[in-house]
Design goal:
Two copies of one chain form a homodimer. By secondary structure, the first copy, chain A, is α/β, with parallel strands linked by helices. The first copy, chain A, has one domain: Survival protein SurE-like phosphatase/nucleotidase (Stationary-phase Survival Protein Sure Homolog, Chain: A, 3-Layer(aba) Sandwich), CATH 3.40.1210.10. Helix content of chain A is 24%, strand content 29%. Chain A has seven helices and eleven strands. In chain A, the strands form two sheets. In chain A, strands 3-4-2-1-5-6-7-11-8 form a nine-stranded mixed sheet, with helices on both faces. In chain A, strands 9-10 form a two-stranded antiparallel sheet. In chain A, strand 3 and strand 4 form a beta hairpin. The interface between A and B is large, with 77 and 77 residues. Chains A, B: Its main location: cytoplasm. Chains A, B: Belongs to the SurE nucleotidase family. Chains A, B: It holds the Pfam family SurE. Chains A, B: It comes from Flavivirga eckloniae. Chains A, B: It is an enzyme of class 3 (hydrolase).
Chain lengths: 258, 258
């Protein structure tokens, strides 16, 4: 690549979140950066898209870096669609999403706006990576992530990714010197055991807050949860072909057409 | 099974949509039905969950059938979580979602609230099916679907489904006598080419409507798109382990730890 790569940056915590500001500053050292990110937090939005209402987008100036930035009223997936079809002059060479405030490992990938943005770029044939730090607080320390985020992004730019594959990168919330390295992993089998906090409104109406405990059901030592517990950065190659190919043969024995 | 199965019914078009009313009436012939469905349309919500606001749910009475019904202010995935953790006395024997007004074949599975509800049940270890009719209109004719929806549901109750696998069933919008049967398929490679309709608000602010054309990029004769075009009902076994297992070996050659 003789000219600098065009890098699309997005996230789900909103355009002013420290995580995306860190990601933008790292990407400015690699290529030409265009940011299209939600104007408000969109955590837990999954792969939602805006079908029944309108989208706003405007040029914004948040710091004095060289990047071009747009905020968007839509979901993370909307941001990527709008960037590719409307705001960018050409297809970006890579899309990076994050750095998310909080884990998107194991089953969290399903609920993640950060990963849905990366997956949306992947659907469009753009190499894409979602980055997440295991600290959901606004004041999370992203500094230990920086060299790893840069290295993984450069490797994807150099090696490319096969069509239909996106990287899901999670970073443990520990000091940089404690990070043991990077592990390629599979998504752990895990789930959330929800506990609904039932309350009564001042008007006497019942309502709920969704809370829950994360439960890792997977004892494997090749999973993202295992790697993160062992102080590694986890990288899971992730796909949007959801077909359970291995079960097609079995289903054909059901004789659904009898 | 000596006693009648407990069937959880949900959807993404909202509890009063004709599609879910049809599904409820079919399920009433099979088991004891509890409905927990959104109080308003949630199409395109993907696997969104409600993290930053409250959830309301209330018992509702929409027709004189034997089912028990709750509406919920949340997303389809929220409805399933609330049903399992809070509203049902025991784990349901099956969860059926739909019948969706419109296709959830190929890449649409990613954006689908209907399928995210079924997948959420699958994550909880409940056999689950998402049903969709290829007609997005409110007045869609669900009558041709009925015997097929019943048969597939009964087969899942009889055979069970392996942990981690959900069925994505799509039904062509044709007369019942024109339906050739049921095909087990893989998810076609397809995408949406968006066209943003840019307009100006009365206040002079630019805004967009998301519109687009569906493009099937897959010439295979084993895909859901192919089956539907050939007047078959498509059944895709769908999973929420998004790991691209086949790419792990290749990624390990990248030497990310050098």
């Amino acid at each position: 690549m003789t000219e600098k790569p065009l890098i699309l940056v997005t996230n789900d915590d909103g355009i002013s979140a420290p995580g995306i500001r860190t990601l933008i500053s790292i990407m400015n050292t690699i290529g030409n950066v265009v940011v299209v990110a939600p104007d408000s937090p969109q955590s837990g939005m999954g792969h939602a898209i805006t079908l029944d209402s309108t989208l706003y987008s405007e040029r914004v100036y948040i710091d004095d870096g060289p990047q071009i930035e747009y905020s968007c009223s839509g979901t993370p997936a909307d941001c990527v669609k709008l960037a590719i079809r409307e705001l960018l002059d050409r297809k970006p060479d890579i899309c990076v999403s994050g750095i998310n405030h909080g884990s998107n490992s194991s089953i969290n990938v399903i609920y993640s706006g950060t990963m849905s943005a990366a997956i949306e770029a992947g659907i469009e044939g753009i190499p894409a990576i979602g980055f997440s730090l295991l600290d959901y607080t606004w004041n999370a320390n992203f500094e230990p992530s920086e060299t790893y985020v840069k290295k993984i992004t450069e490797q994807v730019l150099n090696n490319g990714l096969p069509n239909g594959i996106i990287l899901n990168v999670n970073i443990p919330n520990i000091l940089k010197k404690a990070i043991k390295g990077i592990k390629i992993c599979r998504q752990a089998k895990a789930n959330w055991v929800e506990e609904f906090d039932k309350r009564k409104s001042p008007q006497g109406k019942d309502y709920y807050w969704l809370t829950g405990k994360f439960v890792n059901l997977d004892g494997g030592e090749d999973t993202d949860e295992w790697a993160l517990e062992q102080d590694y950065i986890s990288v899971v190659p992730t796909q949007f072909d959801l077909t359970a190919h291995q079960f097609i043969k079995n289903l054909n024995t059901w004789n659904l057409n009898d």
